[in-house]
Structure formats: structure tokens, C-alpha cells
Amino acid sequence: MTAAASPDASPFVALVDWGTSNFRLWLVDGEGNILGERQSADGMSACAAENRFAAVLEEHLEALNAPLSLPVIIAGMAGARAGWLEAPYVETPTALSDLYRYTVSPEARRPVHILPGLCQKQTGPFDVMRGEETQLAGVIAGGIETGVICMPGTHCKWVDLEEGVVRRFRTAMTGEVFDLISKQSILRLSMPGGASDLNEAAFDHAVLDAFAPTFSLTTSLFSIRAAGLLSTPAENEAASRLSGLLIGAEIAGMREFFAGGKTVHIVASPKLSALYARALHLAGADASPLDGSALVRHGLFAAARKLFIEV
Amino acid sequence: MTAAASPDASPFVALVDWGTSNFRLWLVDGEGNILGERQSADGMSACAAENRFAAVLEEHLEALNAPLSLPVIIAGMAGARAGWLEAPYVETPTALSDLYRYTVSPEARRPVHILPGLCQKQTGPFDVMRGEETQLAGVIAGGIETGVICMPGTHCKWVDLEEGVVRRFRTAMTGEVFDLISKQSILRLSMPGGASDLNEAAFDHAVLDAFAPTFSLTTSLFSIRAAGLLSTPAENEAASRLSGLLIGAEIAGMREFFAGGKTVHIVASPKLSALYARALHLAGADASPLDGSALVRHGLFAAARKLFIEV
């Protein structure tokens, strides 16, 4: 997909969100206005084997007629060990506004800066993130410097943010486990046909089950299959119950993050945001969805300003 | 695989354990002594599509020179809805010695009896078993009529047995979830090379983690991956930790079964038995491994006696 750059605009920097399976690039001016945009499936996985990172980047920049000297700033898996050039993790607690200091620059025909991910060794169990830290910088750019941020997805990140500093964070494998169990375990037989509407009663009931002090995930899953054999549940009941058990278990496991009545800011697609907000309300928590669509770009732009203007 | 029948023996019945992916048959005399034995990959999955059940059974019997009128008794998935002929679940609480009353007989050239599975609707969450009930009948035949039986595997069954009656039971998807997560999730990258020796310290530590009141499985898994990125764990540490988290979570979820100091009788392969016994000891429970290899045959033989001699 291509959006043509306005011919008379003067680009300030190219911002790149380079994930495992997706590539996204924006050409922006000094105010952060978008002058051109590219998106493709040239993620880290597609580029790593033949080390196509530099070539892919140049190809996309050329398509937008970007000047040869235009600098580029990149967040995401391009900075992983298996990526273009490793940008070593920065350890928590860490100020997100300082991450630009730890960018690494691979060999390229123009200035290229890859932002680092975050790791946790002391402030909680071992954990890592790569890409989400730049979304968090975007959250800060949007005015939220202190709070609990919940970022659902394949690997859900919960983050304790305090005056722009990531104090600690924790990952739940909720999305990946939902995917594996719903598509590949015996439970797949009880949820044919893929996505369907939420069965609110089944979801809520499952979330509340997962909040019980004696709850155990693996000993609760099989009843979904048994219910399909012993009764005639509604078509969307099994998937909604699985979703409720997993999201409920995640929220129960993250209680320490929002204890004491803290608001949980949710960064996700509208559909997923609504599910998490619903479950958080059942936990008595305050949930506030954030528009996540532009966060990476805002975080990249904030880092670019630090790198090229403010310093 | 074939064991030749002794030429002058007089078979009393053929016993069949017909699972999803395996077929096993024993020809026995009136005392239960094995006269011949067959094993193959003709499980339910391989037979269902073209309804080869009768043909496969006759082929194996012929190979053992079984008399044309010899009766057959079958346990397992051959009695599932997708099997040869559905043997409807018998609901708990139920006396295992009575299951022979609920066999079904498919059309065949000889008397064939398929034993039913068990279901639970009132004595706990919806649950089902098919095949394990015959192993349980074998446990009873071995002299244990009252106790807690733990049957680890793909779908682990915990059973509350009282004077030969299954009061209630519960399934944990521990084996299947271990398989999916270790082979297909992001954690696979931290546990290459498949099975290796147990890292006892990592296993024990994980089991104890899973016993904590605030434990949550999905929020604990990712630290295994992060540890692989941030430190240099021993080669067998990641898989042992995953195993400990999952078995620990299962045992914690099944606490009500062995509360009050009840001994847990474990029915599994020696290796898996040892893992469960180790984790149960950490929970302060008494664990006693049972030799599971002959249980199905003993259960089938007990049902055959009821069907053909005692009645």
C-alpha cells in the first residue's frame, strides 16, 4: 500500500515500525505530519534469512521519493538479535524519553537509528519487550505519564508507568495460548467456524470463574469440551468461555498492577479493548481505552525530535 | 506385532483396548491368562472414515486363529460418537462393576460388546472419560476400591473412588497444553532438542511457584522465554520449568481431591509417575505409583467375567 508523498513537502525523518511479520513506514515533516506512508509484509522474518533489511528499507523510501540523506528511525524486531542489528535491551526502571540514547546504527547509505527494547531483571520476573516501549513513548507524547498500561495481543504487556519511567512490566501469553488452544487442542472441536459474536453471559461467567481464589486454568478448560458433548451450548459459547477464562486469568494475575483503584489504560484494537474493559469492570477496576493506532508513530517521532532537534 | 497363540489353549474372550490412535487386543483364557496379543495403529481415527471397525477386528482375530464364535469386549474410543457404535456415557456417581450392563453391540459376525465411558453432570463441572473407566475397573480388580486416582497424560483424569464407585472426577489438559506450548509457542525457541533429563531444581522451583495463592499460569510462562534471552540457563531448564509450572498448577487445582491427607495413586508410565510423585510430595501429599501397564486388560477381563460367567 502506498500513499504518495506531497511533491512540495519537506520530509524531516522516516519513521519505521519493523515488526516480526509487518513493515510500516511514515515520511513526516518537522511537525510530525504524514507526507507519505508504506506498509508491507517485509517483517523481520521475511528479511532476516538473506539480510534484506537495507534493501527493503531503500526500496520503500525510493517509492516515496525520499531524499538520499533523509534519516530513518526504527522500532521493533529489526533490533532483535535475529534482526538487522541488535539494539541491546535497556533495563527497567528506565525513562522512556531516554531510549534514543541507546539506538544502534547499522551500515547503510543514510543515517539509520534502531531503538532498543526493554528488559526486566530486578523489578520483577525476567521479561522483555521490543516495539511496545515505543508505543509507550507515544502514550507519554499523548499526555499520560503516570498510570497502568495494558497492551493486549499475542503477548500482552502490563506496564507500571510513573512520570514517564517504566517501573516494571509483565507479559501474559494470553493471545498466543488462546490461538493454540482454540485452533489446535481438543477444544477446537467445540468451536468450529472461527470468530463469531461474543456470548456475553458465557464470557462474564468465565471471567468471574477465573477470579476465584481456587481457580486453575488447565483444570478448567476441558469442561468446555465436555459441555459440547453433554449439552447443546449456543454456537458462540465455547469460544467466549475460553476467551473469558484466559482474559480473566490474566487480569487476576496482574491484580498487583491496578490494586488501590488505579485506572487501567488499554491499548488495543476496539474489539479487544472492549473485551478487556468488560473483564476489568467485573474485577472492579476502572478501564480506559486508548486509541492505539498512532502510538508507535508518535513514539518514533518523539525519539526523532530528541535525536535530531533537541540534542 | 504378534504373539502366537498357544495351539492347545482354549480362549474365553478377546479383550480390546481401542483408542483414538492405537488398537490393542488380547486373547485370554478363563483365568485371564494371555494366549495371544496384537497391537497396531488401527485406532478410531484410522477406522472411522471408511467404517473399517468390523474388518480390522476380524483381521486381528484371524491372525490369532480365534474361534469364529469367540466373544469380544471393547473399551475406549470405538464407543465414541465418531467410533464404531456409540456407547452412551454413564453418569457419575456410578459403580464401575456395573458398567458391563451398559455395553452396546454393533452388527458383527460374533458377539461384540463395547463398554461405555463416564460423564459428570451433577457431581462437578461437566466432564467425560472414555477408556480410563476400564483402567479404573482394573485398579479395583487389583484391590484398591477406595482412594484418589491420578491418571496423568494428554488429558489427566483425577478420580474420587469410594468402595468401587466413581463419586466424581476432573480432567486437566496438562499434557496437551505442555505439548502445544513447548512445540508451537514462542517458548519452543527456548527448549530446542526435545526431551532431555529433568532439571530437578528448575522443576521443583516451578512447582512451588505454581502452588502460590497468587499464581497465574499465562502470566508466568513468558519469563521462561525472557530467561533464555537475558541469562544462560542450563539446556534442560526451560522444559523442566514449563513442566513444573503445568504439573504444579494441575495439582494445585486438584487439591480438593487429596485434602485431608489422602494418598494419591498415580497411574502412568514410570517417568511421568515419578514427576507427579515428586510434585505431590512438594504439596505435602502422599503419592503411590501404580503399575498401569495391565490395568485396561484387567478391567476388560473383569467386565467379561460379569458379562459371560457371573450373570
Automatic annotation (TrEMBL), chains A, B:
Enzyme Commission code(s) on record: 2.7.1.58
Source domain of life: Bacteria
Keyword Lyase listed = no
Q: Is this entry keyworded Transferase?
A: yes
Coiled-coil regions listed: none
Q: Which UniProt keywords apply?
A: Transferase
Q: Which Gene Ontology MF annotations are present? A: 2-dehydro-3-deoxygalactonokinase activity
Q: Which residues form the signal peptide?
A: none
| Broad EC category | transferase
UniProt-listed Pfam families: DGOK
This chain belongs to the protein called 2-dehydro-3-deoxygalactonokinase
